[in-house]
Amino acid sequence: MKKKSIQLLGLSLVVLLIAFSGTACKPWTPPTPCTTTSTTSTPVTTTTPATTTLPSTTSIAVTTTISTTTSISTTTTTFDEVKDATAKWATSGHADNSSLAFRDWDNATNPYATVSKSCASCHSTVGFYEFLYTDNRTIQYPPLALNNHGLTCDTCHSNRAADKTSVRFEASGQSVDYPGVASVICGQCHQGRTWGGTVDTNIKKAYPAGDNSSTVDKISSKISSTNPHYRAAFAALKASKSQIAYNYGNTGIAVDSTHPGGTDCMVCHDQHSTEVRVVGQNGQNLCQPCHFFTDLNDVLSFPQKTAIDVKAAQLYSIIKLYAADSTTLDAAGHTKAQACIAFNNDANPYWFKDANCDGIGDNLTSSGSYKTFTPRLAKACFNYLVYIKDPGIFAHNSKYALAFLDASINDIKKYKDYPISDAEVATRNGSSQAMPIQPHWHSETGTMRQIPLQRSAKVAQAAIRQWDLTNF
């Protein structure tokens, strides 16, 4: 019996060894490789079996087959597309490393001079990259001024930039979440550096409690001009958050753009050249059917722009009248001293003394800057600069521009109802009838477009204003 049990145990071991050797001793076959090459940031998940094909010459496009029935095609950037994007970028202001935006910190006697720590986050690629990591506008490691070569590809094309989901307005402290794939990057810098609240802070240098009815028209050398900074397009688009213009206590005038086509920057701008796009890459008109634009000239002749330009001209005119006035302020005989003012867009700080009141600054340097602001004048001059420093504000947010320019005009007229021309009155008061729209033949392009029908010279501006508020 014992002998039989041993025999059975031995037989079992033999069977197990045969079974094990049959599995373990098969020749090893390496798994089918699954290699995917892609230059996009979108992950591609695959399972074997899979095939990867790399086209010849300039194409880097990848097709990964998952099975016999399912295929995912990932189109990536080709060499020609990179070449085209680089050529477009080279024509942009971002690439113009000879401009003041990148050369302002050069120092001929100090080769170790750096870009200002407070400016480098938007005026250098290195600074912007650090800002994306720290969210601190004061850059710890700004580049040497001589090595500042403009905003290169790495400024926007980085993992840090791709991870951004919101824009914080540094001046107002408010944020916009998920503003758009381009706006979330562009808005980090195209937001200005001041806001309406900065003007109040400036005024409090002279009047710590803020201005009131007894101080609003009193000159103080402690009040200076406030500059909103430049190309603050995103601040205009998202005015409810930026509050960039002075609102005179009425936050309701700060409305966001309601452009039906969307407000992401790439809706209207090429992301590399930054030029306004009317015709897309495949030849389609990007502005239709809302607008019958055929080229940039059509965009620049849009009624919104005309209405805003007229309104801004009115504001500048009334600013000069107010500055030159010396009307008695009260029964005690206090007067607002006459101190004529002149604007020059090519010389910082833009507002200058004008001793003979001829509309031309006497000395276009800092020593000749205007130093006799009243609180009322400081607010109006700031709003005029908000308009001036965003040349595209008519497209970015026309309603907002008209509202804050009008608010400044009305505030100055509280001091005195300065006379303005009939055309200006028409623009201010608007019209009870919206401007009718008619097809119009565009002689240069041989196409039909729609423009407002101007009924008469006297009411034209009024109709433009009313048409703007009703139809945009």
Helix percent reads 25-40%
Gyration radius (Cα, Å) is 32 Å
Coarse structural class:
mainly alpha
Could you tell me how far the N terminus lies from the C terminus, measured between alpha carbons in angstroms? 104 Å
**Would you identify the regions where 5 or more consecutive residues have pLDDT less than 50?**
13-75, 422-472
Helices and strands, in order, run as HEEEHHHHHHEEHHHHHHEEHHHHEEH
Beta-strand proportion: 5-15%
Helix count equals 18
* Dominant shape: globular
Average pLDDT number: 79
Report the strand count.
Answer: 9
Task: Please outline the major beta sheet.
Answer: 3 strands, antiparallel
- Order of adjacent strands in the largest pleated sheet: 1-2-3
Care to describe what's here?
The protein has 472 residues and is mainly alpha-helical. Among the domains are: 37-77, no CATH class; 298-471, no CATH class. The protein is 35% helix and 7% strand. The chain contains 18 helices and 9 strands. The strands form 4 sheets. A 3-stranded antiparallel beta sheet has the order 1-2-3, with no helix packed on it. A hairpin with a 4-residue loop joins strand 8 and strand 9 (447-452). Helix 13 crosses helix 18 (457-471). The radius of gyration is 32 Å and the shape is globular. Residues 13-75 and 422-472 have low confidence and may be disordered.
